[in-house]
């Protein structure tokens, strides 16, 4: 028996402590250092290396937003689209929440309106008045599957102030959380529209208090009555069984309060404002915590949404397996108007009961641009020195906010967007054309005329077989037109290379001389530099040697009289000694000794 208890404890310990913790990333936007916030000492990472924009001090628009003192805003001068690109996010199911803030400056537009996209899909447009409400308008929350190792969160200007972001949370949640049927989540994003905790006296934000680590921290608005009814709030301290939902995904406190209808009106009816012409996923949380109901069959209800019954004969005790047991019902419905009405009608018993409601907008995931074409555009952006005002961040073909100067077309074969046109004429571009432009293999037209683009035309440009129009006139390009491009002129393509003084090689342009590669030109340049250095060195050495010779001659001329006198005296002395010492031995002729010296 002791061994059994030991093994049970061992495996329980292993499950509790050895399983990998869910991924969590919290960023305090604009912060230059990591920050911890009360009361849970939650860690918010500093904002470094994710994006551009401007750091500044922040005002919190709502008590829901984290108590952080900085934010990051994106002026229109840096482009209409700006993004946080967060790397190393493991594959999984995530709650992604973005908090909005207000710039702490009196002269600043204190309520900017802008669009938010997650992974290239528009998920939220900030409504007017968002900063004056303590509810879901102070942030946007989405449930999304992330599969590429990154998270791309973008903010799009709409002409009503600069986007201001206070904080970002990315938290992994249970794979089965909000499971709505086969294929759920792969192709849709859930955006939280409303969460209601029925019977609570005040809203609650479940930030690390008692939310399960796989559930995330969720904000619940409180509701004490449905519509104009005098409904009865009830509560319990009993532990609620959660067998019918993802294990421990919802906090216990959610099911420990409820609303019960009264004798005056046995129905529970609630209306929720929504955006029209969208699909909504509705989640109803039910637990039989009313002490007056103790067994199966004592309370049975029908549930209708916008007048249509969606759940019949719901006996919570029977379906959940007993009292104090949770039941979660889900359905997805289209809504054409601006109101979503939920009604619970008792068919057995006299009262209806509800614990909580969640409403999610179901957003179809937008198709993305081919990754290799996005990469090619980013390379072109750097090579051409594209001005900041263009932005060119996020997905080029994002339907609501496509990149300026980029034309897109949907490719049915790949189910992706492709780039079929570039229109960047007269934009003051001063860079060069990179070889990566050939990766834009669906291009039909390019207009880069009237800029200051220099260098050669990449030969790879000729491999774009779909290209029908190419305007490069009015630049500073040089070198020979690639043969592949010249050949395209025979196939009714329209190319304009005029007003580039250095281009040659096709009719209408100068004839090319011997064509040298860039490497050859560099070699010739280096050789010429070496030759100049050698010649300069030789001239310097010759000049120094010449100066030394001239200096020596001047010294010789200056010392010549003194040297001549000394030589004459020495000669006289030597002659005398020779005459006295050797007269008896030798007699020299006048021819040998010369004329006699005069002393």
TrEMBL record:
<keyword id="KW-0433">Leucine-rich repeat</keyword>
<feature type="region of interest" description="Disordered">
    <location>
        <begin position="578"/>
        <end position="599"/>
    </location>
</feature>
<dbReference type="Pfam" id="PF13855">
    <property type="entry name" value="LRR_8"/>
</dbReference>
<keyword id="KW-0677">Repeat</keyword>
<dbReference type="InterPro" id="IPR024788">
    <property type="entry name" value="Malectin-like_Carb-bd_dom"/>
</dbReference>
<keyword id="KW-1133">Transmembrane helix</keyword>
<dbReference type="GO" id="GO:0016020">
    <property type="term" value="C:membrane"/>
</dbReference>
<feature type="domain" description="Malectin-like">
    <location>
        <begin position="27"/>
        <end position="362"/>
    </location>
</feature>
<feature type="signal peptide">
    <location>
        <begin position="1"/>
        <end position="20"/>
    </location>
</feature>
<keyword id="KW-0472">Membrane</keyword>
<dbReference type="InterPro" id="IPR001611">
    <property type="entry name" value="Leu-rich_rpt"/>
</dbReference>
<protein>
    <recommendedName>
        <fullName>Malectin-like domain-containing protein</fullName>
    </recommendedName>
</protein>
<keyword id="KW-0812">Transmembrane</keyword>
<dbReference type="InterPro" id="IPR032675">
    <property type="entry name" value="LRR_dom_sf"/>
</dbReference>
<dbReference type="Pfam" id="PF12819">
    <property type="entry name" value="Malectin_like"/>
</dbReference>
<keyword id="KW-0732">Signal</keyword>
<feature type="transmembrane region" description="Helical">
    <location>
        <begin position="522"/>
        <end position="543"/>
    </location>
</feature>
